[in-house]
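Researcher: Please generate the 3D structure of the following complex. Treat every line as part of one assembly.
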Amino acid sequence: MTRIPVMEIFGPTIQGEGALIGRKTMFVRTAGCDYRCSWCDSAFTWDGSAKDEIKQMTAEEIWNQLYELGQDCFDHVTISGGNPALYSSIGNLVNLLKEKGIKVALETQGSKWQEWMKDVDDLTLSPKPPSSHMETDLKMLDLIVDNVKVLKNASLKVVVFDDVDFQFAIDIHERYPNIPFYLQVGNADTTLKDDDILVKNLLKKYEWLIDKTMMCPKMNDIKVLPQLHALVWGNKRGV
Amino acid sequence: MTRIPVMEIFGPTIQGEGALIGRKTMFVRTAGCDYRCSWCDSAFTWDGSAKDEIKQMTAEEIWNQLYELGQDCFDHVTISGGNPALYSSIGNLVNLLKEKGIKVALETQGSKWQEWMKDVDDLTLSPKPPSSHMETDLKMLDLIVDNVKVLKNASLKVVVFDDVDFQFAIDIHERYPNIPFYLQVGNADTTLKDDDILVKNLLKKYEWLIDKTMMCPKMNDIKVLPQLHALVWGNKRGV
Ligand code: SF4
Ligand code: SF4
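Model: Done. Output below.
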């Protein structure tokens, strides 16, 4: 299949999290996910609530829309989801973007492997901790990490909501000690409309995660980050 | 001279800004600066207000204090100021830290060169924009950038308060296109005690800087960041 199910295309904006935090980028968000994380902040990509917005697009159509939105104000595109690694057709998009001189980032939980994952510039693998109620297939994650060793910019990111998640994060960091590791504060209020309260809650949770990390000798060579887009724009979509 | 004038030693905490944003680190803040930036958020290092706290310390004494505070919970030390590049004696500290297996970051505005700057792991050069009322010596900055080309992790960071600063940032980025570039929101309220208002102001300014950057085709391959420590801890010192 050569088309890609696209939920939304937006930007230029900043990457709000992980290794590229603050980076100017465009976003292509694919529809569909093989997971159902309890606290998913992109549930509209798979829960049917926005299914009328999904478009089956070719790589060229996606490029045209990216260019219409971003003109000469971008050199980087982030493919996010849902889980973009569900689709072999994204290989076309990655190739086309590289032809255009655009750098490409991919965000995926690491449950599926696609050959084109070797061709992205920045890869974020975010295995989901126990609070998601999902189970990480570590054999698959091993395979992906092994396959992308060649990439200069692969990183791991674990969202942490509680102590059990933190232990999961330690285990992942110890399993792949050579992959740059990012801890991220979870957003438990993905439907909250009051931005002031949201920011207060998120910064409080961030401080909690910083404190835990600072006292943990197994978590020295790591970064702890909030989601900047949630601090700036709250739970709004498409920013 | 073998001693280093130290203002404060603290951590472990996170690096709140720039290329290492979110990184677990210890801080060694030196006293003294050759600049007098109008909005300096570390003015206590040079304005005399905390001069009784300054200690002349050897590298060994600094290491002992770092270890007492951080034990086995750190593998990274950030040397900040003031301007640490005033002191040739910091070479001893850099060497000692590297012997201990600790990674070393340096933050300086780029007004002075020291040979030991070649030995740090992470170097942040932050030339000051016009709103600081300081004038950047571009010849010196050229020399430093040229000298540290060998470093894997050198970056430029420019604080932006207004449109004139933004143009300065563009000029710096265009002068050194191959050095990773960071835009940072200025904190105009360095004495404000009300953290809620501070956070609101900082996030508003951050959004302003994001918007400006997104519309600027000369600022594509860059990152725009806030100061995380100011969001989490306000204007408190030593965090
Ligand atoms: S993997 Fe990501 S998109 Fe899928 S359910 Fe979990 S959080 Fe949502
Ligand atoms: S260079 Fe840094 S420490 Fe020195 S006055 Fe300016 S902001 Fe303050």
